[in-house]
Amino acid sequence: MTVKNDHITMLHGAGGTVMHDLIKNYIVKYFGDTASIEVPLEALDDAAVVGDVVLKSDSHAVKPIFFPGGDIGRLAVSGTVNDIAVLGAEPYALACGFVLEEGLALVDFEKILASMQQTCMEAEVSIVTGDTKVVEKGSLGGCVINTSGIGRRNAALEKNLEVVKQFRNDFKTRWILDSNLRAGDKIVLSGTVGDHGLAVLSAQEGLSFGSGIKSDVKPLNRLIRRLLGEVGGVVAMKDPTRGGLADALNEFSDKSHVGILVYEDKIPVRKDVRAACEMLGLDPFEVGNEGKIIIGVVKEKAEEALKLLRITEEGKEAEIVGEATTDFTGVAMQTVVGGKRIIARPVGDPVPRIC
Q1: What domains can you pick out in the chain, each with its CATH number?
Q2: Cβ neighbours for 96, distance < 8 A, ≥ 6 positions apart
């Protein structure tokens, strides 16, 4: 989709086709000459690789700054940690930049800091440097947080790659990338989709949906470490944030040059999330998440990966939801009524400012 507008709109930050076009046609145009970097900017993976170090920078402008199940501080730490971990690296140090709005209550700021501290403890990382700025009242909706992080290769990644090469003789990549899928690989989803976006929407609009929908925001690096080190065979991973499952699957498909077939009855969606989406006319597969991962794994290790995920708190609702194929291009869904439908990359996440 082409947006005929000479100015930035909310869609440019909502994941999906509009944001991807902005990044490719403008940002990469000026900063994309990084061919010497192992995983460069133009690869558009979740982080960059420089030598044996993974580098990530993330800005968070969620509105409101507190929402059911989380807050901007927990989101900032989790989002950066997860983007490093899905490449197979172990995150270990973060930098944090605060842009605070004049009038933000100090008690609220302290709640955010305490939440960040707790999340860092869960993820086993430290915030080691940062910066603080203050802007005029009415500019931000409370605050904006930038977190940058670094991660490094570890034993779990090396063990994982050894397992992959047992089944994929031509596998040469040193990292877990969106472009690594091949026909026959299974697609595993670590849990229910749409929770975070609906939780933020409920806070934005004062809706309750008659239930306890909460954000799934959490750091997933310890889960990923176990998956890589104890099972292995993982070739691709992604956290389906803005644009949700639909956008993430299409990224896998586009970059790996394979089709992906998923099964509607295997994709876990909470009943209250599904009901709320139906009421609001939203597709839960296009709504963002902050505590789930999509995993591409060689078919020989898929059941073992699923078994491990299901014994963890973060992955207890995991399912094998599909597989990569050369039968078609793009992403398709086998529906519960027996037909197939195309899962296109969304224009953007239907819920604004979810992260």
Answers
A1: 46-153 (3.30.1330.10), 156-342 (3.90.650.10)
A2: 76, 116, 127, 129, 130, 131, 145, 146, 147, 148
* pLDDT at residue 260 greater than cutoff 50: yes
The pLDDT-based confidence of 1 (bands split at 50, 70, 90) is very low
What are 33's two structure tokens? 């000459």
How would residue 224 be classed by pLDDT, with cut points 50, 70 and 90?
Answer: very high
pLDDT at 328: 95
Strand 294-297, strand 126-135: pairing: unpaired
Q: Could you tell me if residue 147 is left (phi over 0), alpha (psi between -120 and 50 degrees) or otherwise beta?
A: beta
pLDDT of res. 42: 62
List all residues 6 or more positions away from 275 whose beta carbon is below 8 Å from its beta carbon: 209
Question: 3-state class of 305 per DSSP?
Answer: helix
The whole-angstrom distance between residue 320's C-alpha and the CA centroid of its chain comes to 18
Over the stretch 304-350, which tens digit does the pLDDT of each residue have?
999 999 999 999 999 999 999 999 999 999 998 888 999 998 876 67
In the chain, the N- to C-terminal Cα span, in Å, equals 23
- Look at residue 3 in the predicted model and tell me its pLDDT: 47
Radius of gyration of the chain (CA): 19
CB atoms within 10 A of CB 169: 7
Asked if residue 253 lies in contact with residue 323, where contact means CB atoms within 8 angstroms, the answer is no
Tokens of 114: 């305490």
Q: Would you report the helix, strand and coil content of the chain in percent, each value rounded to 5?
A: 40, 25, 40
Write a three-state SS string for 31-43: HCCCCCCCECHHH
pLDDT of residue 34: 60
Whole-angstrom distance, CA of residue 176 vs CA of residue 212: 35
Query: Which tokens in the block code for residue 51?
Result: 């030598």
Cis omega (within 30 of 0) for bond into 352: no
